[in-house]
Design goal:
Strand content: 15-25%
Strand order of the largest sheet: 1-2-5-7-8-9-10
CATH architecture: Alpha-Beta Barrel
Distance between the termini: 12 Å
Number of domains: 1
Order of helices and strands: HEHEEEHEHEHEEHEHEH
CATH topology: TIM Barrel
Low-confidence stretches: 3-24
Radius of gyration: 18 Å
Largest sheet: 7 strands, parallel, barrel
CATH class: Alpha Beta
């Protein structure tokens, strides 16, 4: 089955280079007001069978999920955390800085007016209302003493049985109503993940080059899914710090990338089953783009 997915992805990748274009559609959102269709059901994971492991599910996420402060160079999201979750986001990317006994959510040097405790409280509130769902969280320590972040997070969650910190890959039935941590390098709680991004993938000087990199990353995701690791692809980017892309803020990149990404993913809708793309973390995703990722989950 995976071999078939790979060949189809390669075929559509070639088509994408020729036919996909950038343009205005409803895949990009910079409006802080979330408006959900009346017919929309927030708990979309209720339709996922209990036996499916998280590594077999295509999951929409946000990159730098709390980055809504600090001006154009820092802002990556328009919606509040609560609204992101209600719109269907099930993966959060958090940069944290430990100071004293508090973990502050950051974007670089900019404090995002929230602590990790406040984030976890918001997620817990959401999961208490929608018990069929699970929310995956990647914590990236920004502290000088990164090793202490594990201890601080462990202290925050205590013995909460609704937080998954084991390295084993759970199935959906095991994590309904739970927070699931993802671990890598300096953060050692939760399930391991494969990051399809290279060291320079967030630096953007050409939108076309960024398209090609994302296609390569998603191909890698379809090859790696289904195992003992989650797979994360970040579609975000910024031209800041590069000569040719110096005016490409995260918002400007997302404004061009998101419509293209939406078209690219929708090419696979005729497939049965549709390919698994793992976790796709985005800047400024719209409700429609989030639904496009969710709707890949048809087997």
């Amino acid at each position: 089955m995976k071999a078939g997915h790979q060949s189809l992805l390669f075929y559509y990748t070639l088509l994408s280079v020729t036919f996909l274009c950038h343009g205005d559609d409803r895949s990009f959102n910079d409006d802080g007001n979330l408006i959900l269709p009346e017919s929309y059901r927030i708990p979309w994971m209720a339709a996922i069978e209990d036996f499916r492991t998280l590594s077999l599910i295509s999951i929409p996420g946000t990159h730098d999920s709390m980055a809504s402060h600090g001006g154009p160079e820092a802002k990556c999201q328009a919606w509040s955390l609560k609204d992101q979750l209600r719109a269907g986001i099930r993966f959060l990317d958090l940069k944290v800085f430990g100071l004293g006994d508090t973990l502050y959510v950051m974007h670089g040097l900019i404090y995002q007016r929230s602590t990790l405790k406040e984030v976890l409280d918001t997620v817990r509130g959401f999961l208490s209302e929608f018990e069929s769902e699970a929310v995956l969280i990647r914590v990236q320590p920004e502290s000088f003493e990164k090793s202490t972040v594990n201890e601080m997070v462990q202290s925050l969650i205590g013995n909460d049985q609704n937080v998954w910190v084991n390295p084993g890959m759970p199935n959906m039935g095991q994590v309904r109503g739970k927070i699931v941590f993802l671990q890598k390098s300096t953060f050692a709680l939760g399930i391991p993940f494969i990051d399809t991004n290279g060291k320079s993938d967030e630096k953007v000087s050409s939108i076309k080059d960024k398209d090609n990199r994302i296609m390569k990353q998603l191909n890698e995701a379809t090859e790696a899914y289904g195992g003992d690791n989650a797979v994360v692809t970040d579609t975000s980017g910024s031209g800041l710090g590069t000569f040719w892309g110096m005016f490409l803020t995260p918002k400007r990149v997302a404004e061009r990338i998101n419509p293209w990404l939406n078209q690219y993913l929708r090419q696979f809708y005729p497939n049965q089953p549709r390919p698994c793309m793992g976790i796709i973390a985005m800047d400024f995703p719209s409700f429609d783009l989030i639904q496009t990722v969710i709707n890949l989950n048809q087997w």
